[in-house]
Amino acid sequence: MEPPADGSGGPEGLAARPSRRSLRVLADDPPKPPPAGVLDLVCGMTVDPATAKHRAEHAGQSYFFCSGSCRQKFEAHPEKFLGGHREAMGSAAAPAGEIPAGTKWICPMDPEVESDGPAACPKCGMALEPAMPSVAATRTEWTCPMHPEIVRDAPGSCPSCGMALEPRTVTVEDAPNPEYVDMKRRFWVAVPLAAATLVFAMGEMIPGDPLGEFLSPQVRLWLQLLFATPVAVWAAWPFYERAVVSVRNRSLNMFTLIGLGVGVAYGYSLVAAFFPNLLPHTMRHGGVGGSVPVYFEAAAVITALVLLGQVLELRARGETGSALKKLLGLQATSARRIAADGSEADVPLAEVRVGDRLRVRPGEKIPVDGLVLDGRSAVDESMVSGEPIPVEKVAGAKVVGATVNGTGGLVIRAERVGGETLLARIVAMVATAQRS
């Protein structure tokens, strides 16, 4: 039999090939979900391949897109977008010298495959990539509650339905939703201006027409223009942006109608105020020589009401996550790690790795899910099981992160850390259920 063309059959190839022991498949862990998302090569958005509706095949490889327009652009000129993708991937790769010692290498398609160094995945053949826990831990993804395949690295609006994106994962930080803060500010500016515009527009309908005694119809027209302009232009600007995006993506939604209605009402009123002679006489009150009706109040009031709906919706969605944040806040913030030489040091919870030996002193929270190696104590697991009686833990027993140790001391081996702990998975499941 001839050796392979790549020389892997010779001694050099055997030396370069990673040993089977260097690749560890975590059989004890439950199957992990596929990668969070892949890059839309056209717009740069992150798309979940499991739920993406738009897909294209090129050169035997599948590519996923957030919308049909992105897919059509890619199919028209695939090399244009693939070239930029290769450059971006090349520049994103971290030099070997910048990868810290002890970093695990994982497969992008099969995350359960791990290696102690660079190698090829034994399942799919892809090159393993360094797992950067410090980067992944600080990255927040934003997704649409109605279209979970839409994933972005920053807050914004969904290109399909226009809804505000929300964090995909729940964090302990109680930072305000920037979308809610912006909409609330626009609403409180729009309310008094829209109310004033409505009064000047409908003043003649008030019994006795008190405004007509000292304000002529022309003055009231200019006052409507003055008060309605900030509302119809600045306060309604997010609706215009979402309407344009919906048309561009060929995914019409309620913001398409809102942007069109407010824009047409305000634009027509501008023409009627500055160039009334351009409009036919049939549109005037009383025929020739009459005034042309304007709809500044309609544009302003519609904007204020839609902003009110947005504020109420965003506030309700924000309050649903408060219980999850309180639950996530039960976890410990640090752990006492035992080094190989027997020394102990307190480290942040994010630095704990699977296999680390941790000491849990009396009264402390158990930092991560693990296995008791030494010691004896009663652990309060009521936050998980609801059972008020502490559970006795001895060597070989399983412990759950965020539960409270009793009067004894324990030495445990970390088995699940970060997003793999029971508490983190409960929070993730509830957050996913709320968005479904």
Characterization of this structure:
With 436 residues, the protein is an alpha+beta fold. 37% of the residues lie in helices and 16% in strands. It is built from twelve helices and 20 strands. A hairpin with a 6-residue loop joins β6 and β7. α2 packs across α3. The longest helix is centred in the middle third of the chain and has 25 residues.
Layout of secondary structure:
Layout: H1 11-16, E1 23-25, E2 38-39, E3 46-47, E4 54-58, E5 61-65, H2 68-76, H3 78-92, E6 105-106, E7 113-115, E8 129-130, H4 133-138, E9 142-143, E10 150-152, E11 166-167, H5 178-202, H6 217-235, H7 237-248, H8 254-274, H9 296-320, H10 322-328, E12 334-338, E13 344-348, E14 357-360, E15 369-375, E16 377-380, H11 382-385, E17 391-393, E18 398-399, E19 404-405, E20 410-416, H12 422-435
Antiparallel strand pairs: 1-7, 2-3, 3-10, 4-5, 6-7, 6-8, 9-10, 9-11, 12-13, 12-14, 14-20, 15-18, 15-20, 16-17, 16-19
Helix pairs in contact: 2-3, 5-6, 5-9, 6-8, 6-9, 7-8, 8-9
